[in-house]
Design goal:
single chain, 12 helices, CCDC113/CCDC96_CC, mainly alpha, 0% strand
C-alpha cells in the first residue's frame, strides 16, 4: 500500500520541463477531454479536484468518525484549509484567464503544519462511548457482547476488513481518475501558455511540488501514528475480548449446570409420577430418557435457530447504528449506491432466512399440534386400556376365587374317590366271584361239569358195586364148584 502511495505521489506533479502528454499518455487525456468539461456541471459547480485522494480520504475518514459519533458535523476540507491557506499557502495559478467558462476553481492546497491526525478528536469525540475497564460492564450492550463470544469478533473483523478493502479499492480508482483529470488540466494549461508564448510559472509549480512532497511525508507519519493507535486499540479490544470470553465460558458452564439440575429434577418427578402408571421403574426410566432426549434435540434446534438471529440483531444494533451517520456523510455517491445494493442483498438474504425460519417454525408448530393430538389420543387410549385392565383384573380375581373353590372341591372329590377305591377293593376281596360274569359262567360250567362227573361217578360206583357183587357171587360159585370137584 505504501509503495503504491509513493508511486502515486511521484507521478502526481508535472514538471515544467516535461510534457504532460508524455507523463500521462495520449489515451487518458483524449478520453478525459470530453468528460472534464461535463464533470463540473454534473457535480453542481464542484471540481473533481476537490475530491480527496486515497491518503486524504483515509485521513479525513479517521477524523470524521469521532466527530460524527459525538453528534457534530465534520468541517469540509475547504473550511479547514482556508485560514491556513490564506496565511502561508502558495499563490494559486490563474485559472479565470486560462480556462474556459464553466470550469471550477482549483481548491487551495493544505498547509504543511496542518494537523490531520485524529488523535485529538479520537479522545474528545467519544464522550458518549466511555472506555470500559476490565470486569466492569455498565449497559446492556456489554452484556450482549459477553454472550456473543469469539466467533462474532472474528466475523466482525473479517467484515470490517472487507469493507476497508472495498473502500481502499474505490479510493484508489478515484485517485487515478483525479490524477488523470489533473494531468488533463495541466496539459490544457500548458497548451494555453504555449499558444500565448509564455512559460508556465516555474516557481509556483515548484512550490506545489514541494508542498505535495511535504503533504506526502506528513501523511506517511500520520499513517504510522494511526497504525500505532490501531495496534493499541487491537490490544485493548483483545483484552476486552478475552475477559468477555471468560465470562461467556462461565455463563455457559452455569447454564449447563442449571440445565442438568433442572433435567435431573424433572426426571425425578416424572419417574415418581409415571412409575405407578407404567407399572414398573425400568419402563418409566426408558420413557423418561426418551422424552428428555427428544426435548434436548428440540432445544438444540431452537438454539441453532435463535443464535444467528440474535447475533445479527446485536451486530446491527451495536455496529451499524454508530457508524450509520458517519458512513452517510463520508462515503461518495458511488459508495452509497454500493452500500445500498449490499444492504438490499443483505436484506433479501435476511428476508429469505426469516422466511426459512418461519417455515421451520410453522413446521415445528404443526409437529407440536400433531404431537399434542397424538398425546391426547394416547392419553384417552391409556385411560380406556386402564379401565379394561381394571375390569379384567376384577374378572381375574373372580376367576381365581372360583378356581380356588373348584380346587377345594376337586381335592375333596379325590379324597372321596380314594376312600371309595379302597372300600371297593375290600368289597371285591370279600365278594369273591361276584361281579365277574366270566368267572361266574366258568364256575357255573365247572359246577355243572362237577355234578355231571359226580353223577357219572355215582353210576360208575354203582356199576362197580354191581360188578363187585357179581364177581363175589361168581367167586362164591367157583369156590362152591371147586369144593364139589375132586382134588
Amino acid at each position: 500500500m505504501m509503495e503504491e502511495e509513493e508511486e502515486a505521489g511521484a507521478e502526481a506533479p508535472v514538471h515544467p520541463g516535461e510534457s504532460p502528454v508524455e507523463a500521462e499518455g495520449p489515451g487518458p487525456v483524449a478520453e478525459e477531454q470530453a468528460a472534464g468539461e461535463e464533470r463540473p456541471e454534473e457535480a453542481g459547480g464542484e471540481s473533481p479536484l476537490e475530491k480527496p485522494s486515497g491518503e486524504e480520504a483515509a485521513a479525513e475518514e479517521g477524523t470524521a468518525e469521532p466527530e460524527h459519533r459525538a453528534g457534530t458535523e465534520p468541517p469540509s476540507p475547504a473550511a479547514e484549509g482556508r485560514p491556513e491557506a490564506e496565511a502561508g499557502a502558495a499563490p494559486e495559478a490563474p485559472t479565470s484567464a486560462s480556462f474556459t467558462e464553466g470550469e471550477a476553481e482549483e481548491p487551495p492546497p493544505l498547509q504543511v503544519g496542518e494537523v490531520l491526525s485524529p488523535q485529538e478528536s479520537w479522545g474528545a469525540g467519544r464522550p458518549s462511548l466511555p472506555l470500559l475497564e476490565l470486569g466492569s460492564p455498565t449497559d446492556e450492550e456489554e452484556e450482549e457482547e459477553e454472550e456473543e463470544g469469539g466467533e462474532e469478533a472474528a466475523a466482525e473483523e473479517q467484515r470490517r476488513r472487507a469493507e476497508l478493502t472495498e473502500q481502499y479499492r474505490l479510493l484508489l480508482a478515484e485517485r487515478e481518475r483525479t490524477r488523470q483529470y489533473n494531468g488533463h488540466l495541466q496539459f490544457k494549461l500548458y497548451e494555453l501558455f504555449r499558444k500565448k508564448g509564455e512559460e508556465p510559472p516555474r516557481v509556483e509549480l515548484e512550490e506545489l511540488v514541494s508542498d505535495k512532497e511535504q503533504r506526502y511525508t506528513r501523511y506517511l507519519a500520520m499513517l504510522e501514528e494511526l497504525r500505532s493507535q490501531l495496534a493499541q486499540q487491537r490490544a485493548w479490544y483483545q483484552l476486552q475480548l478475552d475477559d468477555l470470553e471468560q465470562r461467556c465460558t462461565k455463563k455457559l458452564d452455569q447454564v449447563n449446570a442449571d440445565w442438568l439440575a433442572f433435567q435431573a429434577c424433572k426426571k425425578e418427578v416424572t419417574l415418581f409420577t409415571m412409575g405407578r402408571q407404567l407399572g414398573g421403574k425400568e419402563a418409566a426410566i426408558k420413557e423418561v430418557e426418551h422424552i428428555q432426549a427428544k426435548e434436548q434435540r428440540k432445544e438444540n434446534e431452537m438454539s441453532e435457530v435463535r443464535l444467528p438471529l440474535t447475533w445479527d440483531l446485536c451486530f446491527q444494533s451495536s455496529v451499524h447504528e454508530p457508524y450509520g451517520m458517519w458512513a452517510q456523510e463520508e462515503l461518495a455517491e458511488g459508495l452509497h449506491l454500493i452500500d445500498f445494493e449490499q444492504l438490499k442483498i443483505e436484506n433479501q438474504t435476511y428476508n429469505e432466512k426469516i422466511e426459512e425460519r418461519n417455515e421451520e417454525l410453522l413446521k415445528l408448530r404443526n409437529k407440536i399440534t400433531n404431537t399434542v393430538q397424538i398425546l391426547t389420543q394416547l392419553k384417552e387410549k391409556l385411560q380406556f386400556v386402564e379401565a379394561q385392565n381394571q375390569d379384567q383384573r376384577t374378572q381375574l380375581m373372580e376367576t381365581e376365587t372360583l378356581v380356588a373353590q373348584k380346587r377345594e372341591i376337586l381335592t375333596k372329590t379325590k379324597q372321596a374317590r380314594d376312600s371309595l377305591r379302597v372300600h371297593n377293593l375290600k368289597l371285591r376281596q370279600k365278594c369273591g366271584l361276584l361281579g365277574s360274569e366270566a368267572l361266574l359262567r366258568d364256575f357255573e360250567n365247572k359246577v355243572d361239569a362237577a355234578e355231571v362227573l359226580s353223577q357219572r361217578l355215582e353210576m360208575l360206583k354203582r356199576h362197580h358195586a354191581g360188578l363187585t357183587l357179581t364177581c363175589k357171587a361168581v367167586k362164591k360159585k367157583i369156590k362152591e364148584a371147586k369144593s364139589f370137584l375132586p382134588e
